[in-house]
Write a structure and sequence with these properties.
Shape: elongated
Strand content: 5-15%
Helix content: 40-55%
Order of helices and strands: HHHHEEHHEEE
Number of domains: 2
């Protein structure tokens, strides 16, 4: 249970080092977008890369070359999704969510909060993180496509105007 063999330890050291180097090289070649936290597909690739690395490290039934091929496949699929997203609005809408307005001119949009499963406390925490004490001090709080909360407080929005690209969630 605690120790099988020196050969097993040597395999983890050698394969782990080579797999790590291969992953770093692949990520450098594939660009910054491969590990960006922009949408669900980027998150899936990040988790899958970690899972693949762990499998290559610990499973004797997975050869190093198979693991490197799996890394390349995941990075290639992520590149393809990003490439198609940039070139096709329809595909982009399919793989990415839209930003959603959660607070507008100091008023919580309860329907949007419920639909996005965000609590008022989470919005208030985002406000405090940006130096605002109260909701009426900001123009808007937007749930971004990557799950972060953006606080817009420098100027009040006119009437029902929303920041560009932001939709109201159905109430």
């Amino acid at each position: 249970m605690f120790f099988d063999s020196w050969a097993g330890l040597a395999r983890v050291l050698v394969v782990g080092t080579l797999a790590y180097v291969a992953l770093v090289v692949l990520l450098r070649v594939s660009g910054k977008r491969t590990l960006a936290k922009l949408n669900a597909f980027d998150f899936i690739v990040t988790v899958a890369l970690g899972s693949t690395l762990a499998t290559v490290l610990l499973s004797k039934s997975v050869a190093l070359v198979e693991g490197i091929l799996a890394f390349a496949l995941l990075a290639g699929l992520q590149f393809l999704v990003a490439w198609l997203s940039v070139r096709s609005e329809r595909f982009d809408a399919l793989v990415k969510s839209e930003p959603v307005l959660l607070l507008h001119q100091g008023r919580f949009l309860d329907g949007a909060l419920r639909a996005q499963r965000v609590t008022r406390d989470e919005v208030l925490s985002a406000l405090r993180g940006q130096g605002f004490a109260r909701p009426d001090q900001v123009s808007a709080v937007v749930l971004e496509t990557d799950g972060t909360l953006s606080v817009l407080g420098a100027q009040r929005l006119e009437g029902d105007a929303r920041p560009p690209g932001v939709r109201r969630s159905p109430a």
